[in-house]
């Protein structure tokens, strides 16, 4: 039996152990009684840093790009707040104003004569968004395969749209994938009403060519004996200085010897109380993370997958019990689970083209935030007098320009506790 470990700067080493005679594959080891400490990994934390704001900004870019003149008042943008992932105590308008290289602000009157902030995309942001659309078109087959494989992991090839929405950023799906993507593949996908009246997405046909996990593809890291016995071992890596105790290492050695159950295979025969079942759960998430373009997702995003993936209660405990496979980052007041093998320090090993686009958006955000804090950005308030209804639909009205200096702590609307409109004196 071979074991593969990631150490140092992503280098891999391995060793072999013979399969113990009389070994019972259904035996349960006492991992529950073994406490594994959490050790901070600064390199992987750096990968997560700023991810929440980047995701929210990119989603706002997608929303604004679909609007007339790429411009919308704040109360229209607030309708999407639930999918932005921002803290509830953060004003959306305050967040948007941090990044003037991406969002330009103006002010307009609505039909009630109320002054409201209105945001549009800068030319630089719009051009980068069009590049992103080109990358998505060029990688459409890969994107559709990822979505198919996600549905193939489930028992009935169905997932609620709510669950897919939680994963769409990680999968690389467009923000409006239901309207702009799914209708183009009516031979593959169908919207389906679930027993609880939610809408789900169903995969219409099974594809055997896709039902091969990433671990099975990585046969180069497995010995001939491993493949013959179907005892595939997961790549393992630990944070420098982790110090795995001997009894934990002993359990890990035995656990890696267990048969590997493909996440695409029927696992109803497995006893959920055994380590064989736990290895199957780890295999499911190992595959799921490989379906994401950056091999990570927030822990809460998989909380609704228990029934669709036929998982036992408290299934996410495998993330703590296998710190050599998964790392839990606690950056940004949330828990993000990262597949360790996918990173060499901060560098992702298999780089998806969308990652480059996102990094360029992140660079624009950092530049805008720095320049804004230095007072380099001014905003012009366009006060609309002509057709207020047209303004509400996202068009700026003409009028007198009012210049005001913008900085982080002295904002025109900072004294208001709502992203809604304010009434101006007549």
Automatic annotation (TrEMBL):
GO molecular function, one term: RNA binding
Any matching Pfam family: PORR
Protein name: PORR domain-containing protein
Domain annotation PORR: ranges: 39-369
């Amino acid at each position: 039996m071979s074991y593969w470990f990631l150490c140092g700067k992503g280098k891999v080493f391995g060793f072999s152990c013979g399969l113990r005679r009389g070994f019972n594959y259904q035996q349960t080891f006492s991992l529950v009684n073994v406490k594994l400490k959490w050790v901070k990994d600064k390199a992987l934390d750096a990968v997560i840093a700023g991810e929440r704001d980047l995701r929210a900004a990119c989603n706002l870019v997608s929303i604004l790009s679909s609007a007339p003149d790429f411009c919308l008042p704040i109360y229209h943008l607030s309708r999407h707040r639930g999918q932005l992932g921002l803290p509830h105590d953060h004003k959306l308008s305050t967040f948007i104003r941090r990044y003037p290289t991406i969002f330009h602000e103006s002010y307009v009157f609505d039909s009630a004569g109320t002054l409201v902030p209105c945001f549009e995309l800068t030319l630089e942001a719009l051009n980068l968004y069009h590049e992103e659309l080109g990358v998505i078109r060029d990688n459409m087959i890969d994107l559709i395969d990822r979505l198919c494989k996600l549905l193939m992991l489930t028992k009935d090839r169905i997932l609620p749209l709510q669950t897919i929405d939680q994963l769409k950023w990680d999968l690389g799906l467009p923000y409006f994938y239901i309207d702009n993507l799914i209708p183009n593949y009516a031979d593959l996908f169908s919207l389906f009403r679930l027993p609880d009246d939610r809408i789900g997405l169903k995969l219409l046909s099974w594809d055997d060519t896709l039902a091969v996990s990433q671990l099975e593809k990585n046969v180069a890291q497995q010995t001939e004996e491993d493949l013959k016995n179907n005892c595939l071992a997961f790549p393992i890596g630990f944070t420098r200085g982790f110090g795995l105790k001997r009894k934990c290492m002993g359990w890990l050695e035995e656990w890696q010897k267990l048969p590997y159950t493909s996440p695409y295979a029927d696992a109803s025969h497995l006893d959920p109380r055994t380590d064989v079942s736990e290895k199957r759960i780890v295999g499911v998430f190992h595959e799921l993370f490989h379906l994401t373009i950056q091999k990570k997702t927030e822990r809460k995003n998989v909380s609704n997958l228990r029934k669709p993936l036929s998982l036992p209660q408290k299934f996410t405990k495998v993330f703590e019990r296998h710190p050599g496979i998964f790392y839990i980052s606690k950056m940004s007041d949330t828990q993000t689970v990262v597949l360790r093998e996918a990173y060499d320090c901060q560098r992702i090993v298999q780089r998806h083209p969308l990652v480059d686009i996102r990094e360029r958006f992140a660079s624009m955000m950092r530049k805008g935030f720095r320049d804004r804090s230095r007072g380099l950005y001014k905003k012009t308030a366009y006060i609309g007098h002509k057709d207020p209804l047209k303004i509400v639909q996202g068009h700026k009205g003409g009028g007198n320009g009012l210049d005001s200096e913008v900085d982080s702590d002295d904002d025109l609307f900072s004294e208001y506790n709502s992203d809604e409109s304010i009434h101006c004196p007549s």
